[in-house]
## 1
Amino acid sequence: MSKAGYFIGLSGAIGSTVTYAASVRPAVREATSHGDDVEVTRHRAASCLAWAGVVLLVAGYFQLAARLARAGKGMPFGDALSPARIWAFLRAPAGKDAWIAQGTIHLVQNTVLLLASAVLIALFLPRARRHLNAIALTALPAALAVTLIAAVPATAPKNADKVLDLVFDQVHFVSGVVWIGQLWTTTYGLFVLVKILLVLGMVAAGAVNQFWLMPRILKARRDDDASSLLHLTLRHFPKVVWGEVALGIAVLGVVPFLSGSARSEAGSPPAVSTGSIFAVGALLVVTLAASLYITVKTSDALARRATPTTA
């Protein structure tokens, strides 16, 4: 989740500054009149950029804490949020065969991230909005530098392929946040967009399960220890269950249509679907059903072993 938030924040910062530089700024500059429309456009653009800075700053902090939590022997994410522990992580010496400490790379990256965020957040101030062009054009290269610095390897790449992988990854990422019109101008892109929205729905459903559904299932288990976990869930929460089943089936239903690429769809011909592709989809459905069955049985056994606690 922290990595997803980080890329959302970075995409927002890069995408919003590029949009302003490439579209909003030229349109405002070439406007035949400078009345209310121009001012409203500038005001909304400034607000969008300012909020992009807030999201980038918060997401960057959580991502840095997640890096610390995964480093070495690892630690709980809550402990990794400590500024003192983060500072120690950033100052850690270089490892064996490393030409630069990984912490130093993270330090430089997050310093640039802090700069980009601060520049954008400054647009909340009315006085700063008078310099909107300069601020946006300053934040743009800084936001791009955040992802480029993060790609710097701590150890020298062993061959040219590794170097090209790093370069192409960055080109792919930056291109994606600058131009996403493949998502609604091609058949492939539309299916990708639908799948992204469905997966986001499943992520939201996971949060509902963790923070709302599971406590209520445990309460229902204490009230009726004889019934299985599956029966308890279907009896008390049928709408949640069938809603999540529909989301899961919808995601798997989209997968067979994700063949080829947006670039190959000159004129947006219909997506190609074959029997083998649908067979793979059917296999995924069977695998999902088996995993859900195993999960239910395991959760049921653990729930029966759990000892109720009293205040």
## 2
Amino acid sequence: MKAHHNIVIVGGGNAGISTAAQLLRQDSTLDVAILDGSKKHYYQPAWTLVGGGEFNIQDTARDEASVIPTGAKWIQQMVSAFLPEENTITLADGSTLGYNYLIVAPGIQLNWSDVKGLKENLGKNGVCSNYSFESAPYTWECIQNTKGGKALFTNPNTPIKCGGAPQKIMYLAADYFKKHQVSTQVELWSGGTRVFGVEKYENTLKKVIARYGIHTQFFVKLAEIDGPAKKAKFVGIGEGNKDQEYWVEYDMIHVTPPQSAPDFIKNSPLANATGWVDVEKFTLQHVKYKNIFGCGDAAGLPVSRTGAAIRKQVPVLVENLLALMKGEPLKGVYSGYSSCPIITGYDQLVLAEFDYNNNPMETFPFDQSKERWSMYQMKKYLLPYLYWNQILPGRM
């Protein structure tokens, strides 16, 4: 293995692959290496549809080798440590890799073990989650097998990838129960403070919640699952209910696990005080190490962590990195754009698009806060096609 590359990209997910592809489209002679030990690449936004019985899980996975851009070197290892003062990375096997420029895009870490009993019960006892390839299909089983009682949907008090995902599957389940005349009480137990951070879209979602008769509880986090007894323990985290405990019986519970930056980021010199890659929010350049950039879910940006956000971050990063390499000023600016296609039922979707200041940044010439059949079709059919054929190859 070559011990040094001009540009090293940590992470072979959406952010890492599309960044490499766009760099090589700009200059095919660039020496680019991608560090990732994963053998599979997943289109994770479709896992909500898998959980709702609308998508085949096998269609969300491809071999990682198939998405590595032509001209990039794939190093099939994970990172153990960063030595930015020396411009080197320590790999999992103990070897070191040098770089001139580093792009850090390893994605987000799912902390299943932070909830007592979650790992042991996931995939059985009515405990499901769309947040892994292995467990997403069981969500659909749970929805179909629920004949009454309570269906709980959790949202942790940590940043998560696709902030709307915990609600999307909840609305699909509620719509399924309604259409099949199943009398099940649907409940959202959330560590957040409100339904959605952008008022325009939140107003619509409040009406959706009322339509399905969903009960909501905020300022709580899931602490424990007793699978055999089908009970979940929540604890209060707000000033008004701090340390209060709730044991709630369920027939099914969809869990969104607590999430964080990967441990090798949190424990590195690249991290900010909360563990994320410490980048400047407009240029995506590291605040201390100027030859390092970050983007995607692990970046310390005050933004919803979505594939749509990555699609807007990558061109800015590419423009600024190439400018830095030429000794030119960094002119690329990321506005904080993110998008959350919020499924509100079968064949219904609200397309939320917004910036750092939670101001709507809508693409289409109509009110995107309204539930639309057309936007659902876009989510189900168009976006997966664009991901594999346009976004990953660096064409958009």
## 3
Amino acid sequence: MTPEDLVRDHTIYSCVMGSRAFGLATDGSDTDRRGVFVAPTPAFWRFGKPPTHADGPAEEQFSWELERFCELALRANPNVLECLHSPLVERIDDTGRELLDLRGAFLSRTAHQTFVRYAVGQRRKLDADVRQHGAPRWKHAMHLLRLLGSCRDLLRTGELVLDVGAARERLLAVRRGEVPWPEIEAWMTRLSDQADAAVAGSPLPAEPDLARVEDFLFRTRRASALQAYADHEVAQGVVGGGLAG
């Protein structure tokens, strides 16, 4: 079974991400698609394991196998957590709906560390651009500001909201290079400080609900195994009946 087969036949959830999900799309924006597939349980019983992720088959499309997706979400990986909260869902089944019902189980104050750590790495890249070229990559600066604001609001409210709302025009001005770099630096620093200040009083739990997520994964794997067994029995019955006749 190829990665393309897994995405095509076993996707439980897919959505649009990127600027379109953040409320920052322009006429030239790409359509970034992200998804989650469940590899059939018997595929794990062989030496060759199913892939943990898959590119494509469409342009700008990327999918994770369910277990890998849950692992990353439990670690508060920003890209994965945001995937769970996209307002633009394109495909979902009952298992996918159960995954979305678990969104709160993945959220914790761990997000402060992971979001800020990711932001620090991106900020270093922007600083290097400024040193080398005299200006940052404006689109990247815009998205870093968006991420920092999202982290601050998550810690303050306990909810992860992707759409930037009223900040849209100011962020798009950053993307167009209309905001001086020192002003952007000050904005980033202010958002980081506000996120740091929000941690102590955050309504988020200290850790994600590992037991709840693990129970979901176990039940999903078990259901897949039982379905594979039932399909095998049906196939054997058909073959056996044909031979007997």
## 4
Amino acid sequence: MTVRYQSRLFGATQNALILFIAAAILIPIYWMVAAGFKSYAEVFEAGWTFTPTLENFRAIMNPPYEIHKKFFNSTVVAIVTIAIAIPVATLSAYSFSRFRLRYEKSIFMAIIATQFVPSIILVLPFFILFRDTGLLDTWAALILVNLSFVTPYAVWMIKGFIDAIPLDTEEAALVDGSTRLQVIKNVVIPMAAPGLITASIFCFIICWNEFLLALIVTSKDAVTLPVGLAMFTAEEGDLWQLISATGVLIMLPMFALGMIIQKHFIQGSTSGAVR
């Protein structure tokens, strides 16, 4: 077997594997998106062709579903959570990275350990807390719940990017008369921007997709999109065409964010691993 033949065989195998993986990822997505534009009868047909309709999207926007309100709730909760979590996580990560603190490793490990606590364990404490404080079914409850999850994750993630920033650049700014906060604002944040963007994306995804705790602490006014998916049932069973139409709306912000900040996302995903 010649080297050229082996090279061609390897290339063909590699291309076939890539196509297989791409099909395994894209076909379910296509099937879900297509179902959002199908009628109820067409959803249960195995054909690849169908007559597109926007009736499902009209239906989910009207009572009793009113998905646009759930979309607004999810957007507000996710944005406010990120707006609070990322600055707090950045300052915390900078402290862990640059200062030697008493019990530093223990504190940092305690922060990381929160990521291993199953959500189901926290359901009852959060429900009792929000019931007693009158925060059930409010944006504030959802924001506090999401902050408890995304802030430790953001601290852990951003610390890796700050660790990769050379100390010389900060020392030079301090020698020139900058304060520590000015150094963070003018030196650290610009250099760690890809990492901050990456952390923001992942935290946004966590907030956007959170279901279990949102299901427990909301009932009507602050219901989010993932919880709204549970409404699509009728006497004839699950309304898959409406579920799929809502799924399209849930995916749209993720795809939009990915397209807009793809460059920063890739750079941030790789730069934090280089020390």
